[in-house]
Design brief:
The protein has 133 residues and is mostly helical. 54% of the residues lie in helices and 0% in strands. The protein is globular, with a radius of gyration of 15 Å.
Length: 133
């Protein structure tokens, strides 16, 4: 739990709305539907790529690992950006289905939080307190 709390705090600081770069689940879904006026095609893919890079760099610089990527893990292939985008999209669709859409509070969730959650589920560290660097 301590690791997830630390990850959530770090993510909140990195993707705070004042930074002007946070993408909500509502924004992600709208971009995927192509309903955001002036949005470049592929903006969600580029956003996910940057989010993965940022979270990966944060994990490497941290004393506690949020997730432990092992190339031997069968899920490793899902880190290819197109595959990972599919995993993220499926999770966002599941969140929307459970919440009855993304117009409410669920839509305000940041995509980065979903990415951290997925990575910690897909690539857990050996001990519950997080892996050591």
């Amino acid at each position: 739990m301590k690791v997830l709390g630390t990850a959530a705090l770090a993510l909140a600081l990195l993707t705070a709305p004042s930074a002007g770069s946070a993408m909500t689940l509502r924004d992600y879904a709208a971009n995927e539907r192509g309903t955001v006026k002036g949005a470049a095609p592929g903006v969600t893919l580029a956003y996910l790529w940057g989010t993965l890079d940022g979270i990966g760099a944060l994990g490497k610089a941290s004393r506690i690992r949020f997730f432990c990527i092992d190339e031997g893990n069968p899920k490793y292939r899902l880190l290819q950006i197109d595959a990972f985008k599919g995993v993220v999209t499926e999770r966002i669709e599941a969140i929307a289905a459970k919440a009855g859409g993304l117009d409410g509070k669920a839509g305000d969730t940041q995509v980065g939080a979903v990415v951290v959650e997925l990575l910690t589920e897909m690539f857990p560290c050996p001990d519950e307190g997080g892996g050591k660097p």
